[in-house]
Amino acid sequence: MATVEALEWLYYKGKKELEKKEYDSARLRFQKILNMTREKKWIERANAMLASVYLAEDNYFWAMDHIHRALKRNPYHAPHRYIKAKIHMARKEWERAANEALKAVEENLDNSSYYRLLGKASYHCEGYTTARRFLEWALECEPDSAEIMQDLARLEVAETNFQRALNILKQALKLTNPVESEKIRKRIRIIQENWKITGS
Length: 200
Description:
Elements: H1 3-19, H2 23-36, H3 40-56, H4 60-73, H5 78-90, H6 94-107, H7 112-125, H8 128-141, H9 146-158, H10 162-173, H11 178-198
Helix pairs in contact: 1-2, 1-3, 2-3, 3-4, 3-5, 4-5, 5-6, 6-7, 7-8, 8-9, 9-10, 10-11
């Protein structure tokens, strides 16, 4: 097997293992790429994926170390900025998370995930109005996303806008499979109970 083919195989195998939460195997694949080549493209990719593996394992020190290495090679790559934003978010470094998510958005204005993270992070440093605007932009990028709708509903609940949250969740209900629908129904019931208690 040629080296490039071997690197591609390791990379895609590692990605699949990360998706399946097989973190040890995924880490070994990406580490092997770093041991096999000095080619910048593959080193950058392997470091970014290692950052994702460590982030998934809540090992923020090594996640940040590897994403810094990837960004050193490609500072304007939106997916790298997004990973860095997620690490800051996990560490509750809201402003840093928002700054990195904003850089990702600036590089790719059509990615709902970037707006979504920017919305969640900005709620903690800029408040409801800014967060809501970013989440609504995320929804414009992906109008059928029940996940984004649920983020918006959580935001409304945090602000005690229960009626708005209910309306959004009822919309999300139409877009989900039976398993996810049950989770949304449960959230609707919780809000309705809370709504009665508060009299909002």
